[in-house]
Every structure is written in C-alpha cells, then in structure tokens.
Write a structure and sequence with these properties.
The structure is a homodimer.
Chain A lengths: L5 H10 L1 H13 L2 E2 H6 L5 H13 L3 E6 L2 E6 L1 H37 L2
Antiparallel strand pairs in A: 1-3, 2-3
Helix pairs in contact in A: 1-4
The first copy, chain A, binds a DNA duplex (30 and 30 nucleotides) through helix 4.
Chain lengths: ~110, ~110
DNA sequence: AGAAAACGCAACCTTTGGTTGCGCGACAGT
DNA sequence: ACTGTCGCGCAACCAAAGGTTGCGTTTTCT
C-alpha cells in the first residue's frame, strides 16, 4: 500500500463507478447496511463491504454497529470536499477549453482580415 | 437520453488519475507525442501510450501521424461532455447534501421550540 | 549506409474489483 | 434454553487493469 495524500485517497474513492453509485444510494435512501445496499446493486454483499471499507478509509462514510448489523452513513463535510474537488477539475477543464476556443476564433479572424 | 455505454466509457476514461493528469498536460501544453508526454509524467512511454489508447477509444483525444511520430490532441467537444458529466455529479451530491443540511436544521428548530 | 529517435507489440508482474465458501456472534420463535 | 436464521467478517481464489522491461520496425538525420 503506497501511502497516498488525503486528496488522492479521496479521488481514488470517488473515481470508482460502483462507489459513486453506492454514495448515490446512501444519499437518497439514508443510512443502510452492506446487505441492504447490495440488494440495490449488481454485486455481492462482500464487494459492497469492500467498497464501504475504502470509502470509510477515505472518510467519506461512517459505519456504526447496531446489534448484529452495521449501518453506514455518508459524512456530509467530507463528501462536500469531494464534490468540490470534482467541480474544480470540471471548471479547470472548462476554462482551458474556452481559452482554446477563443484562440481558434482569433486565428480565424486574423486569417479572414489581413 | 445519452447512450449509456458511451457515458460509462467516458467516465472510465476520466476516472483514472494518470489520465486526468495526461489531459491536463495536453490542455495546457497543446498537442504532443507519447514520448514527450512521458517526460512530464511519472511513468513510461508505454504506459502513456496505453492511456492514450483508452482516451482515444473514449473519443477524448485524437492522434495523427506525422512522419515517425504520432501527435495527440484533445477533442474539445468530447472533453466538454466529460467536464459537464463531472460537474453534474458534483452538483447532484451538493444538492443532496444541502437537503440533508436543511433537514437537520429543521429538526434542530423543532427541538428548540416545544 | 548507418546510427538514433519514435513507435508498436508481447511477455510479465502487481494491484484491485469481484466472487465463492465458511465460521461466528446476535436475534427470534417455540 | 434450544435451534434456526440473519448479518458480518475473514480467506482463498479469479479476472481485468495499470505499469514495467525487452525487442523489432519504421522514419529521420548526417
């Protein structure tokens, strides 16, 4: 296990499609157990448990024991950090793309008006 | 709605940290070859080539042969789609989180006014 | 013509997402 | 109190993906 920075661990956590779906379900349905979550997902309880472990290590989710079951809930502050990170990348790309677009337009104008 | 497999291929492409870095470099430095890109990245030319292949299959990047070298460039329209997808997920999470926050506040108010 | 640069292909290793199988603690019914 | 069941955790195993090294091929340059 290479020790990653906090940021990279967050990204690694949300990069996985399955984990994003998991987070979606937790967000819309509220806290749930691994078995309950697995019922709404195309993989087994164990796979879900592994994903939950990853998410918990990244701090995105928190599990508490209630008798024989462990209920997992999202940690809003942390997920907010993750959401902002994603939005930031999207924004960076967008600004770069607009710069490219402007450049292309200016070249086009220059070519048409010598 | 948009083609689902297409969407998932896009996500798979941008989910990888290395590929995001690759796109960043291409965006800021303009078109480049696999060897040139590898110089700015912590892995080998072959690894970069594989990533470029994935990105090209996802339509995010386009490679053209110029003599003995292949120069890769970002396809702005496609990357824009990807950026919007990321922003959309971030926004969805954000709205869910705000709903949770509002709910918590209303409970808090109810508890303080019996 | 011959050396060097850039690429493609193939074999291989490691990590990771996913599965099956099993054993153990917690609950519920009788 | 006993027995069956439910939910979990652990371990072995499998397949795909990221990454590396090694080698052969094509293009360029002198």
């Amino acid at each position: 296990m290479t020790d990653r920075s906090d940021d990279e661990e967050l990204w690694a956590a949300i990069a996985e499609p399955g984990r994003r779906r998991l987070l979606d379900i937790l967000l819309s349905g509220g806290p749930a157990t691994a078995t309950a979550l697995a019922a709404d997902l195309p993989f087994t309880r164990q796979a879900v448990a592994k994903h939950l472990a990853v998410l918990e290590r990244a701090g995105l989710v928190e599990g508490h024991r209630h008798g024989r079951e462990v209920r997992y809930a999202v940690r809003p502050e942390r997920l907010d950090v993750a959401a902002r990170a994603m939005a930031a990348v999207a924004a960076r790309w967008d600004s770069r793309l607009q710069a490219i677009k402007r450049l292309a337009e200016s070249i086009h104008r220059a070519a048409n008006q010598p």
